[in-house]
Design goal:
26 strands, 7-stranded mixed beta sheet, about 575 residues, 15 helices, about 30% strand
Length: about 575
């Protein structure tokens, strides 16, 4: 057994463990007449422990840039003439023997090793393929006035704070896929290429930096080169086609979809426009939208075949978004019409019913100031529920009733209950109630018509608290009329709050524990004394006009008591 353990140990020891491959880092510094700062920049970079080589590309300088760079310990590659920043970066990239390359400007006065580490570490740690920097600085006119607007137009998925930062790092293998511009367009060119090719880019904050501000003449040259680079890339990657050709097709398809929507809306909701005109508008819209949507699809397929995918989808969705929204709106509209279609005896009938948007502008106590209700479908009460009326909460709110209230129709009492699960927007009525209200199964009732359907129906409404119950009686009015609010106090404690329509010069009865104890009169919107005592309890009812309306027509004295206060203690 011991021999077996020893053999296994030797075998395991003989297996070669794969060590992580060491990543060599090079830093490329393009320099043109930077004798004052290049030496210090090199010295700072060489202090970073994982930097293996520092290469200064002397781009045709006429001062001592080369000497200062050599003195600081850098490898120097000379251009006989000034070829531009992009060419200098490319020269250094070709000469560097490394896995990771960082590009850093030679004119930074306050460069620190921490800033350099912040650029390179995310790549060493495998978090990204490319890092570009953002930092606080005084200038940035080319970025804000030129680069960002053009990038937002042609490449909206690129949203870096400083696309022209100048300092960045990348894996060398990745840089082989990127086309280096030979001038100031190199920075934005790398960002665009990486984005379109789907290469991961991370923007890292390296804090504030200080460097020489470029004169206006140089900024003009820089702006021209940045614009040229962005436009060239937009042409190369099909963004001009996407914006121009496809953009035109999208706009025209939206026009067509809008005409279809307008035509359908006119057919069903605009009476003063002849039906023939509405149908003509709809047909023209269908032809336009179909034609241009097909053009959009064809051009989009061709573009996808020719251009690297990468992050193209993000821009594609943003540009197509208006058309997508229009299509969704039209589909929702068509689905509504299909849902409202009926076929009977060879005749197709389409009668859409809209929801009722309600906005309360008065001071009435409401749970929701704004709500959208209905329409409702009439159906017969289920078996064993011939004494119940089931309706959605929205319908109850419209009628001013609640669960467990009682509706009296043609002298018969029916208990009100909420809709059964799955019966949203369905009102279930006993057959006798359907006949009395002249309704048929399947009838669609808009929320605004609900009051007309139940006009005159008497309601016994229950509310209150643990110690006191209130039974209130009213009938449903088909119109909203000015109403009065009232609050009920028992022994100086508020027990209920309600509202309703009280007619002028009319009497109303108040009962306590089913016994009539008080009759009040409404005169010019005010009421006679509503303070009294019953069996040692102080009862007060305070009325106030709060400029609100209601459909609750309070029961008058000749029809019975309008309030029955049940005191449980």
């Amino acid at each position: 057994m011991y021999w077996f353990v020893v053999i296994i140990a030797f075998l395991l020891a003989g297996i070669k463990t794969k060590k992580p491959k060491y990543k060599k880092v090079s830093v490329i510094i393009p320099a043109y007449n930077e004798e004052e700062t290049v030496g210090k920049v090199v010295e700072v970079i060489k202090k970073v422990s994982f930097v293996d080589e520092v290469i200064v590309v002397n781009d045709g300088s006429s001062d001592d840039t080369e000497a200062e760079a050599i003195k600081a310990g850098a490898i120097v590659i000379n251009h006989e003439t000034n070829k531009g920043k992009g060419e200098a970066l490319h020269t250094g990239y070709k000469e560097a023997e490394c896995d990771i390359i960082a590009f850093i400007d030679a004119d930074i006065y306050n460069l620190t090793s921490k800033k350099v580490e912040a650029m390179i570490k995310p790549i060493l740690e495998g978090k990204t393929d490319i890092t570009k920097t953002k930092f606080a600085r005084e200038s940035g006119r080319v970025t804000e006035l030129t680069a960002k607007p053009l990038l937002n137009f042609f490449f909206p998925e690129i949203s870096f704070e400083q696309p022209l930062s100048g300092q960045f790092a990348a894996r060398k293998e990745i840089l082989k896929k990127i086309n280096f511009e030979n001038d100031y367009g190199v920075d934005v060119g790398i960002v665009i290429d990486a984005d379109v090719l789907g290469i991961s880019i991370m923007e890292v904050d390296i804090g504030a930096i200080q460097h020489d501000m470029s004169p206006l003449a140089d900024l003009n040259i820089m702006a021209n080169e940045v614009v040229r680079t962005i436009i060239n890339r937009a042409n190369k990657y099909g963004r001009v086609t996407m914006i121009d050709d496809i953009g035109y097709y999208i706009r025209m398809s939206i026009v067509g979809l809008s005409l279809v929507i307008l035509g359908l809306f006119t057919i069903f909701f605009v009476k003063f426009i002849p039906l023939a005109i509405a149908v003509f508008i709809t047909i023209i819209g269908i032809v336009l939208s179909v034609y241009y949507i097909v053009k959009v699809i064809v051009q989009s397929i061709l573009m996808f075949k020719k251009i690297p995918k990468g992050n193209l989808v993000k821009s594609f969705i943003k540009i197509h978004f208006p058309m997508i929204i229009s299509v969704v709106i039209l589909l929702l509209m068509i689905s509504t019409f299909i849902g409202a279609a009926h076929f009977e005896n060879g005749v197709i009938s389409i009668e859409p019913n809209s929801r009722n948007l309600i906005i309360y502008a008065d001071d009435s106590p409401r749970e929701n100031v704004i709500s959208a209700r209905g329409p409702y479908t009439i159906d017969t009460a289920i078996e064993n529920e011939t004494n119940k009326i089931r309706m959605p909460t929205d319908a109850m709110m419209t009628l001013g009733i609640d669960v467990n209230d009682t509706m009296i129709i043609n002298g018969v009492s029916y208990k009100v209950e909420s809709s059964r699960p799955g019966d949203s927007d369905i009102i279930r009525l006993p057959l006798e109630v359907e006949k009395e209200l002249q309704l048929e199964n399947g009838a669609i009732i808009q929320n605004s018509r609900l009051k007309e359907v139940f006009e005159g129906v008497k309601v016994i409404h229950h509310y209150g608290d643990d110690n006191t119950s209130i039974i209130e009686k009213f009938s449903i009015s088909s119109k909203d009329i000015n109403a009065s609010n009232f609050e009920i106090f028992v022994d100086n404690e508020s027990v209920a709050y309600s509202y309703g329509i009280f007619d002028e010069n009319s009497n109303y009865i108040i009962s306590i524990n089913n016994k009539q104890v008080k009759t009040i009169t409404c005169n010019n919107g005010t009421f006679s004394d509503c303070n009294f005592t019953y069996n040692g309890h102080q009862i007060s009812i305070i009325f106030e006009d709060r400029n609100n309306t209601s459909i609750k027509q309070i029961i008058k004295a000749n029809q019975g008591n309008f309030l029955n206060i049940i005191i449980k203690k």
